[in-house]
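subagent[fold] <- orchestrator: predict structure for attached chain, return tokens only, no commentary.
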Amino acid sequence: MKILVCGKGGCGKSTISALLAKEINRRGNKVLVIDTDESNFGLHSQLGMDPPQDFMNYFGGKKVLFEKVKTLQKRWKTDELPKQYLSEKENIKLLAMGKIYDFGEGCACPINALTSRFLEIIELKDNEFLIADTDAGIEHLGRGVDKGCDIILVVIDPSQESIKLAEKITKMAKGINKSFYYVLNKIDDEIKEILLESVDKNKVITAIPNDKRIFKNCLKGEELNFKLKEIEKLADFLEKEHNISITLWG
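subagent[fold] -> orchestrator:
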């Protein structure tokens, strides 16, 4: 199953991606985490890993990436990925598509093009999950990145901006016939009720509370090495959907 995690900047996409990857891994599955955010440098630390080299360098770097992506036809399996571009811990692999480092080096469009094509050609085994942590907003949808995923998880934090963005993502996801669900984040009981009045509550899978451990670890750049029952609930749902998919199409 290919899971794409999206939402506004600062809503907790990377945190949820890391916690979810660890929970799915605890259940005996292999997880490939794809870092598609060119401006976020923290996902590796949340997973307890060293930062991997940018995968775009495998193709010669950003300047030639557009042309190289056009020629990508071969289907790849996770165990065929070049190890020099992976960070690994237990049965979790982290692949970073590319980052922006220097003033004036140009936009992230080639990186998005690589991500879009990669999600289409990567093949997963029955016990493998892919989690793609996206950049903020909806550019990934505009660039067609989401067409290669199976499920879109929209992270919604307590803000009107987040609610409005979720509405836009929902409309686009319906337009490309992708399954989508909501994860409420950084909430308490009062905020949860307000959010459930603002979005389709039937699409809400779990609601993750403000947790000081998450805040502290992210602030210090430390691994998120604990469990949350709300993340377990999310993993339960995704495993069920995955098993249904295998039964129908496997």
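orchestrator: received. Logging for downstream: Residues 2-249 form a domain with the Rossmann fold fold (CATH 3.40.50.300). The CA atoms of residues 63 and 110 lie 8 Å apart.
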